[in-house]
Structure formats: structure tokens, C-alpha cells
Amino acid sequence: MRWFDDFFERGVRGVARRTSRRSALTRIGRLLVGSAFVLPVLPFDRIARTAEAAQKKSPPGETSCDYWRYCALDGYLCACCGGSASTCPPGTEASKVSWIGTCHNPHDGKDYLVSYNDCCGKGSCGRCLCNTNEGERPAYRMGLHNDINWCMANTDSTMFHCTTSVVVGLAEKS
Ligand code: ABN
């Protein structure tokens, strides 16, 4: 194997003779400076990252079905109909009866009891229909049933307009 060692030794010595340490450092330096100019203009996926950051900054608001308080809702959001998440629009009144849900608030990690009231007295609002239905039960559990016009119990008008969601308090742990 002596010839093998000699062969490589000659090769390595040849390269060392032809390249000075200074020229090697110059080349490495050029490479580093070049990449500092080139890398920032490469087409990285900046748009996706910007959208992701924007989403993190603004959690779903009152006009989005994903707003945490709307987890067991079936109806048009009153926040899209001239009212707010918890108040009926002018000219309508809250249903005398309501159904309830238990929703998880991602901001404090707790579960809350939420009361859903239909707002009555005008025809269907028709905006922001949400059907989240978490924990919803058929009509044999009326307090958890949402697929019904709860305005039917009101005396002035039984017309359904939209639905509000009112946080009642912390949910009891089962
Ligand atoms: N509770 C909302 C609703 C109203 C009318 C019909 C179905 C559901």
C-alpha cells in the first residue's frame, strides 16, 4: 500500500503548492459576501409566513362562526345583523327561552356555560349563518336543542331574526 500513500501525498502536496492560504481565504470570503447579497432575494415563501402571523394576531371576531362563544350555535349571528354577540338588533327582543352550550375559551383555557337566545320581531336576518352545534342534542333534551325557533314562546312576535350568545359563567366540571 506504499504506492497508494505516495500517490496521495504527491497529490496533496501539489495542491498545497499551487494554492496559497491567502487565496483560499479570499475565495471563502468572496463566497460569504456573495451569499449575503443573494440569499435575501431568493424567493422564500414570505407571503405564507405573513398570513400566518396576521392570523395569530387576530383571533376570530364576533362576526365569525369560529368565535369561541358560538360553539353550539344554530342561526344568523346578531353581530352581523345590527346587534352584537350578546345583544339583539334594534326592533327585536330576546326569546323568553333559550338553549345552552358549553364552550372552551382558548384565551384562558376554561370552559364556559353559554346561553343562546334567538332575537324575535323581524324576519330572518339572512347574514352569517352558523351551525356549529357542539354538544347539541335532539328535542328530547330541549335545553340543549337549537334547531328550533325559540321565538315561538314570545307573545309579541314569534318571527326569528338572529341569535345571540351570552356567557353565563364558568361551566361546572363533570
Ligand atoms: N334557534 C335558531 C333557529 C331558528 C329557526 C329555525 C331553526 C333554528
Mean pLDDT across all amino acids: 85
Sketch the topology as an H/E string, one letter per element: HHHEEEEEE
Low-confidence stretches: none
Top-tier CATH class of the largest domain: Mainly Beta
Termini separation: 79 Å
Q: State the share of residues found in helices, binned by percent.
A: 25-40%
- Number of separate helices: 3
CATH architecture annotation of the largest domain:
Sandwich
* Distinct ligand kinds: benzylamine
Principal-axes geometry comes out as rod-shaped
Query: Number of domains in the coordinates?
Result: 2
Secondary-structure-based class equals alpha+beta
Plain-language structure description:
By secondary structure, the chain is of the alpha+beta class. The protein folds into two domains: 2-41; 47-170, Electron Transport Ethylamine Dehydrogenase, CATH 2.60.30. The relative contact order is 0.17. The strands form two sheets. Strands 2, 3, 4 and 6 form a four-stranded antiparallel sheet that branches. A two-stranded antiparallel ribbon has the order 1-5. It contains three helices and six strands; from the N terminus they run αααββββββ. It is rod-shaped, with a radius of gyration of 33 Å. The longest helix is centred in the N-terminal third of the chain and has 18 residues, at 21-38. The structure holds benzylamine (ABN).
